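dumping these here so i dont lose them again. two proteins, back to back, each one seq then structure tokens. dont judge the mess
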Amino acid sequence: MASFSNSGGNDSESDQVAVLAFSLADRQYCVRVDAVISVLGVGDTSTVDTAEDPWNAGSITVDGDQVRVVDLQRIFGPTNQTPNRADESELIVLSEMDESDARYGWLVDDVDVTRTVSTIDLEPARRSARFVKGSFEFDGRELVWLDEREIHP
């Protein structure tokens, strides 16, 4: 598995991408920083936890924009279990919009920091994973890069 690149490598600037790392349960993920417009703290997730459709688990208004909540933990985790959430979940609001001009917001357990990665170091997805661009290794853990354009075509 590849590792995060520090600026001392031979990678060209065009190979560098800034990503925002976040966690779901015990897994680490990331998304392109330029796909994110904000990150919000979420206190009570009970209505999201009981929503029938994790792809449309609720909605909120942020700065005048409607945001459709997507419960990533329920999408990527076991389907027969109620998610074991962090005390303070967070919502990653994406620039991508749905057909009704609502933004997408990914409910995640914790948002970490941004990192600059080299796409040259990206390990392709191991199996047919439509939503996954690939993975990197960071601090001995796998960081899975989600493709927001595939998740929300």
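---- next one ----
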Amino acid sequence: MIYSDKQYAITEGQLGKLRHALAAAQSEDTDATGEQSWLRDAQADAIRSQIATLEAELSHYKLLKSGEITFAKTHSLENLPSVLVQARIAAGMSQTELAERLGMKAQQIQRYEASDYSGASLDRLIGVCEVLNVHTTGLFKSDDTSKGFVFSWSNIDDVVWNQLPAREMAKRGWFDVPRKGDVYQLAREYFMRAAGPQFASAYHRKKMHGGSMPNEYALLAWQARILERAQDIVETYDPPEFVADDRWIADLVALTRRKDGAKRAQALLLSKGIILVAEKHLSGTYLDGGAMLDHDGRPVIGLTLRFNRLDNFWFVLLHELGHVFLHLMDGLRYDFFDEEETVGDDEVERQADKFALDNLIPEAKWDECLSRFALSEEAVRIDAKNLGIDASIIAGRIRKERGDFTILQGLIGQGQVVPQFEDDGDELV
């Protein structure tokens, strides 16, 4: 890679010499023997390869200096050394000028760049990033067993707005696009209006629990939609202030027996100061539900209903309520997003899982359920009646614990959730 105008001039000189060498190789005696001809061709091919490499480096340097390359603002840590060099060149800044901005000698910058910043301290890297206006993406992945990701932006200036799924957002009618309108600028304005800059900051880190890493910008957009619709509900119904008292959860679980229990659950939660919104997931989010606090500190739960099953609805809802009661109020500064089918070793997610399982079926009661072993629909119905819950709750738990999603399919309430929310006026499936 070329690091400076001086190196550019040297490379141009090397390129000229190689071109002369190629011309000389091609003009050698055409009457050479077969072996000599082969060596001459091999030499010419090697020179051509070197010429192509130098030409590419010269062109890249020229493009960077001219500003013709669009330089993304947010980058992965793995690419940071190369990005810092390219950002300096694109800014029209020499190694000496960067050194002066940092209060150090130009030779040190030369050594840093030549060694891919291998000897630079974290403080020094942060300083270089600040001068060059380069930001790293805040993605942290835990180990393979925990299936967890955390996305973080230090502030709203770190958001790369053209990464939002703007066209999908517009297609769903989240905002109108006038003729010749900039869809990404409109998506940015939508986010600022629906959520606000604080939701792309360290105060609202996004904790995703799932087997597949989601598109963080699709996640951000979906959250903005949830918050927008939650605010509409608040303005319409003026719910009471939330109190962290979960003694009413038994009333919620009792609604599983009602045909319209899912919709009734939304009303019950509202009466307790918790806003429940159903909104289809965006492409690339692998999402079942999320829990967050709005700008007034009010709990908001979003569900995608992507599986459209009663067992999934009730478990995800109780899991997100676990986050509300156990985590949202303790200063973690996380917004929680979950893929329900994933089993991991994340302590926070285990706590939310346990909250859901224990409230749907207390452990002592679960131990008494004969359907765990009989595996018949009749046994499941008998246990459900004894527990005062819908059979889908038991069927779903058995399927998940056994890892067999082919059994008890007639009891999981397939297709019975989305119709309860269709009056909300949003596409859910």
